[in-house]
Amino acid sequence: MWGLVFVGQGLAFAALEGSMNSSLGHLVNERKRLIMIGGKGGVGKTTCASAIALQFSSIGKKTLIISSDPTPSLSDIFEIEIGDQEKPIPNASNLYGIEISSDVVLKKWKERFGPEIYEVVSSFASVDYDFVEYIGGAPGIEEEYMLNYILELVEGGQYDLVVWDTAPAGHTLRLLHLPQIFLRHLEAATKFYMNLYSYFEKLKESVKLKRGKRSLLEIISGWEALAEKVIQFIRDPEKSEFIIVTIPEALGVKPSHCELCDSRGGL
User: Fold this and answer.
1) What is the CATH code of the structural domain delimited by 2-266?
2) Which terminus of the chain has fewer CB atoms gathered within 10 Å of its CB, N or C?
3) Which of 59-68, 117-126, 239-248 is most confident?
4) In angstroms, rounded to a whole number, what is the distance separating the alpha carbons of residues 4 and 2?
5) 262 is catalytic
6) How far is it, in rounded angstroms, from Cα 146 to Cα 230?
7) Is the distance from CB of 249 to CB of 9 less than 8 angstroms?
8) Which residues contact 136 (CB under 8 A, 6 or more apart)?
9) How far apart are CA 205 and CA 225, in angstroms?
10) Domain ranges in the chain?
């Protein structure tokens, strides 16, 4: 499900699938596992995300609020230093917070996918492990792994709900339109990989990696399956909600309306 929240001068109301509601209270009665808060910078995303997380934690749901904004303000709102490790929020039972930076995200991505990427490429060419660093700099890798990281937090079962305070508009939304996230960005990162994939398509199952390792098909299929799993989860209206926050001014509403249309197309 998608929604639009206006914030300004003490007024907050939501436009949800064409209907107007005075609050987001309907969320309390639904069994969402993930609520994503998006919008332009400076419109109150983190404030709304924090309020939603506090509400759910106050009714007994173990809630994690995580910010991937390049300039996070969760620590300022809750008046504690949160950091990139899950930390309990004082005076708010059942509420935990994380502020995760792009450096940490990329580090986790390299730990998770670096060995597989090197395994694929080194089976066809003599390259240093630094090639993984090159791939890690591809546009969108950070946002891609954030989606996977969020899904792992949700499926881990430690929390009833994850509230994600996303980066400013554009960084997250563009991923909603990609059915094969990891594979496409890997191809875009280097022409060599595109040639590699084309070559693999011709050889199919006859291609095997060196020293009895998995076939290239198995590794690439694993990336595709993971990407599809992430996409299906964030598109599932029973589990996920995407809320766009804006302010009741033309300069805020117009781009948010475009963002809302884009997100509906992706979701």
Assistant:
1) 3.40.50.300
2) N
3) 59-68
4) 7
5) no
6) 10
7) no
8) 106, 109, 110, 114
9) 18
10) 2-266
